[in-house]
Amino acid sequence: MMYSVNHGLWWTIFLASLLLAPLLFGIINKVKAFFGGRCGPRLLQLYYDMFKLSRKAGIFSRTSSGVLQLAPIVSLLATVMAMLFIPGGLFRSPLAFGGDVIFFCYLLGLSRMLTILAAMDTGSSFAGMGASREAHFSVLAEAVLFAIVVFLAIVARSICLSDLLSPLSLVTPGISVPAVLLVAGAFFIIILVENCRLPFDDPETHLELTMIHEAMILDYAGPELAMIHYTASLKLWSLCAVLALLLLPQRVGGALTGVLAYLALIVAFAVGIGVVESIMARYRFLKVPHLLVGSLAAVLTAVLLLLFF
Amino acid sequence: MKIGSCSAIVSMSALLLTLLVLLQAMGFTGGPWDETQLLFYGIGVAYDLLSLLFLLPVALLGLVAAIHSIGYLHGHGAARSGLYWFFYNLTLAAMLMVPLMRSAPLFLLSWEVMGIASFALVIFDWDAAASRRAGWIYLLACHAGAAFLIMMFVANSSPLSPGMLWLPAVLGMVGFGLKAGFPLLHVWLPSAHPAAPAPVSAVMSGAMIKLGLYGILRFVLLPGDTLLLCGWLLAITGLLGALLGIVLALPQRNIKTLLAYSSIENIGIMTMAYGLGVLGVAYNVPGMAMLGFTGALLHMFNHAALKGALFLGAGAVYRATGTLNMEKLGGLMKRMPWTGGAFAANALSLSGLPPGNAFLGEFLIYAAAFNGVINGHGPLRALSLLCIIALATVGGLAVAAYAKVISAVFLGEPRSDSAAKAREVSWTMCGSTLALLLVNLSLLCLAPYILPMFTPLLTRLAGESATGFQVPDIALLLSMPSILSLLLIGVTAAASRWRQRLGARRQDAEGVTWDCGYAAPSARMEYTGTAFAQPLLDAFASVLKLRRQLQRPVALFPGEIRADLHSQDLALSSVWQPLFGRFGRLAIKTHSMQSGFLHAYILTMVLALVVMLVWGMFCHRVDRPATPPTAVTEEISK
Amino acid sequence: MNMDTTFLTLPNGAAAPIAELPVLPFADFRAQLIQAVTQNGLRVSSFFATPASNRPGDFELIAVLADDRAHLLRLAASRVSKSYLALSADCPAFHWFEREIAEVTGLICENHPWPKPIRFTQPTTGAAGVLPGVTDYLRIADEAAHEVAVGPVHAGVIEPGHFRFQCLGEEVIFLEISLGYQHRGIEKMLVGGPDVRSAQLIECAAGDTSIASAWCYARLQAALSPACQASPAAELWRGIALELERSANHTGDLGALAGDVAFLPTQSFCGRIRGEYLNMTAALCGNRFGRGYVLPGGLRYLADNKKIADLQTWRKRVHADLTNALDLLFDTPSVLDRFENTGVLAPADAAAVGIVGVAGRASGLNNDIRLSHPYGPYTDRPLSLCAEGAGDVLARAMVRRRELDASNQWLNEALNAGTELSADEQASALSSHHSPAGGLAPSMIAVSLQEAWRGELCHVALTDSHGRFRHYKIVDPSFHNWYGLALALRGEQISHFPICNKSFNLSYCGHDL
Question: Which of B515, B521, B531 sits opposite C168 (nearest CB)?
Answer without folding.
Answer: B531
